[in-house]
User: Fold this.
Amino acid sequence: MTNFAQRLIHWYHLNKRSLPWRDTNDPYCIWLSEIILQQTRVDQGFAYYERFVSAWPGVAHLAAASEDEVLKMWQGLGYYSRARNLHKAAKQVLHDHAGSFPDTINGLLGLQGVGEYTAAAIASMAFGTKVAVVDGNVFRVLARLYGIGEPINTAQGKKVFTELATSLLPTSDAGTYNQALMEFGALHCTPRKPQCETCIFASSCHARRDNTVSDLPVKLSKKTIRKRYFNYLVLLHGHGNSASLYLNKRSEGDIWTGLYEFALIETAAPVASESLMESDRWKELTANSEGRLIHQSHQYKHPLTHQLIHARFYVVNLQNLLDLSGQNTLSLIKHSALEKYPLPRLIDRFLDDTNGLSDYYQT
DNA sequence: AAAACGGGGCC
DNA sequence: GGCCCAGTTTT
Assistant:
């Protein structure tokens, strides 16, 4: 046994939490716990596990339940596809595997909701297969101990950490090693405020030596999609074939993405027509207009900023063309396209232009 | 490779 | 408001 695994398992026996799905070889219990604990803390999933086992002590019981019953039991846990997959997998075990869980990685991977991690977990903990699990805890602990800056959410990163975890595997009792490594990450080498002072690996931890504990593991930040709600006012004037848009300038620091990205009014959430029309700004602008107000909504993803733009157009007839362009930060935009295309082509044209205005884009 | 899928805890 | 949690599936 490697020195690392030996010391880790020693720590585990001293510090592990007593959990009902531990110290059992029953693949049903282990599988159930693993599905429940996907992206879920033990504190949150514990009660659900107990209720599931109580209601359905074995895979055959679970398979015999209805999907609605399973979903009901899952209520409040989140990621509800897990519940549907759980139920489907139970039926797979019953019908495709004669009621016994498959005991190979590939067999387990064939079950709905069982991916790389869960297959390795069940294989090692229920069947003693020598295979390493790689979950969020493993990424974190190994990244810190070995000072690995490889991003964990890339194919290359997963490969690096899987190979390292595999190389540290003891010759026997991989299941205990896997649980020990995860428990160490969950209790000691935590995401925030890890207990480095009392760590059994303090003297050899690269991150501690390099003062990079809080920087590891590295995770490529995913593009967060900001949703924005732009409300445009389209003013028709003359005798119906020309139109103008009144727009506000963007505030300083806002991403400037082109002429059409200026909304008349931006709101934090979708607003009902009524409440928008009751705003002071709205009344001010539409004071001399008449005609029925109509609106049309569109949604598009900005190609460069990845913002999700919800655009809503309000159209009113304007009796007398107001010169509002000098007021406050308001601008009157008269684009050739707007004069050229009467409604409803106007709005379609507007959106075509919006998505094709790459020449204007800056960041 | 990236996005979608949830609810809860923590800073 | 962002990040994280015993990830998997779909696009």
